[in-house]
Amino acid sequence: MKTDVIRTRIDDDLKKSFDSIMHQKGLTASKVLRNFIVDYVERENVSQRRDQETVEALEQAKLGSVVDGDVVMSWLKTWGTDGEKKPSL
């Protein structure tokens, strides 16, 4: 796997705090920053997927493809019971 180096500038106080925390935990800057970036990318991917799902849901609603709230509430009341209903669309 090819890797690349990312550099950034931070102020001295933040760097000292970061170094102190890393030292206490026995971590390296590379490992911490790599984990931060992985977490950030994962959160952004989830956010983008939710945004797209919201756009798609709004488009479906505009077309009239919705389920009445009373039907949903009635269905939810059956959750965890012997008579649990399957969702109906």
Instruction: Please count the helical segments.
Output: 3
Number of strands: 0
| Helix/strand class | mainly alpha
Q: What is the CA-atom radius of gyration, in angstroms?
A: 24 Å
Please give the oligomerization state of what you see: single chain
Strand content: under 5%
Q: Overall 3D geometry? A: elongated
Order of helices and strands: HHH
Distance between the termini: 45 Å
Mean pLDDT level = 94
Please mark out the parts with pLDDT under 50 across 5 or more consecutive residues, or reply none.
Answer: none
* Percent helix range: 55-70%
Largest sheet: none
How many domain units?
Answer: 1
Describe this structure in words.
The chain is an all-alpha fold and 89 residues long. It has one domain. It is 63% helix and 0% strand. The protein contains 3 helices and no strands. The protein has helices spanning 12-25, 29-62, 69-76. The longest helix is centred in the middle third of the chain and has 34 residues, at 29-62. The protein is elongated and about 60 Å long. It starts with 11 loop residues before the first helix and ends in a 13-residue tail after the last helix. The model has no long low-confidence stretch (mean pLDDT 94).
